[in-house]
Amino acid sequence: MRLRYAFRLYPDTGQRTALAKAFGCARVVFNDAVRAREDARKAGQPFPRAAELSVRLITEAKRTAERSWLGEVSAVVLQQSLRDAETAYRTFFASLKGTRKGPRAGPPRFKSRKDTRQSVRFTANARWSITDSGRLNLPKIGAVKVKWSRALPATPTSVTVIKDSAGRYFASFVIDTDPAADAARMPDTDRTIGIDLGLTHFAVLSDGTKIDSPRFLRRAEKKLKKAQRELSRKQKGSKNREKARLKAARAHVKAADARHGFHHQLSTQLISENQGIAVEDLSVAQLARTRLAKSVHDAGWASFVNMLEYKAQRYGRSLVTIGRFEPTSQVCSTCGVKDGPKPLNVREWTCTACGTVHDRDHNAAINVKTAAGLAVSACGAPVGPEPVLAQREETGSHGFPTEPRAA
Fold this sequence. Notes:
By secondary structure, the protein is of the alpha+beta class. 39% of the residues lie in helices and 17% in strands. The strands form 3 sheets. It has a 7-stranded antiparallel beta sheet with strand order 2-6-7-1-5-4-3. A 5-stranded mixed beta sheet has the order 10-9-8-11-12, sandwiched between helices. A two-stranded antiparallel sheet has the order 13-14.
């Protein structure tokens, strides 16, 4: 399985200047490639191929006075920028044809020097290396100091140097992991779990465990508002405005990094303890249009589920996603009777058929696990609610009404 391992970089002043040149040259080559293809489209000519663009925009451009400075950076960086443009067009055309999953992708846009995120990629033929002292040696940049938080599990195939919106530098290594080593790290277990994601609690498990929502954005909101207010008062284009922008960006990434770390720790714990995990397919995009939008984004459900997905694939676990229209909050997990929709302020309810008192979130987590087929008896047979006669209002094939999932 191919994964990325990111580590913080601390380049000195000269290395920052060299990286700025690399970012700029890669951006110019990318923009030249987009411009060449757009000019060909407007003229009704076929798109120039990547090999032709490589000769025209890199090899021949270096010999001109206008683009001679392209020779000051590694040629691999420029070639990878052309590949990025090629990939962007391929993604755009696949989206137009409907062969690409996910939201529709737009055409490639020109990159700007004012973009808050810059990056360059070095492949193996760039002859980058990790020195004996633990520094990252990059061609025409030098040996950059790295803060290693853990050891790399294998030899990387490429490294991408990233400068984020807060002015921090990172090295992102691409690693091909060993399936046998991954399987040894996570031995098989017979436990399974259902997860109900929410806002009152970030997650409630089918075994009754409740995990509080850290609310990183809400906790940092006061500092964020102050930083944004200071930024809005600075004159555009001034150095003070850039300082205020960096201060606001650092406040935002601090909350984002805390959320990211929380998701990683929780997802790793759940994957290591359970062989099978069931979650609900929540429509985050629709919930983000409601009055709960800020809290929904603060929770970061999509990021958490994505982590569960790739970690389950890596360590041989099963992740089952049930449909978003499954009435997990309306069905009694004991007898299976659908008791109807309930307002979000109803945190406990009593089943009208069997009289069981349910905690709303715990009951939903049990139903998520049952709907995914992870609940099994001692003999291995799936366990579900006992069949009951349909209530009068349940007959027919009407779709379940959507309900904002606050918890």
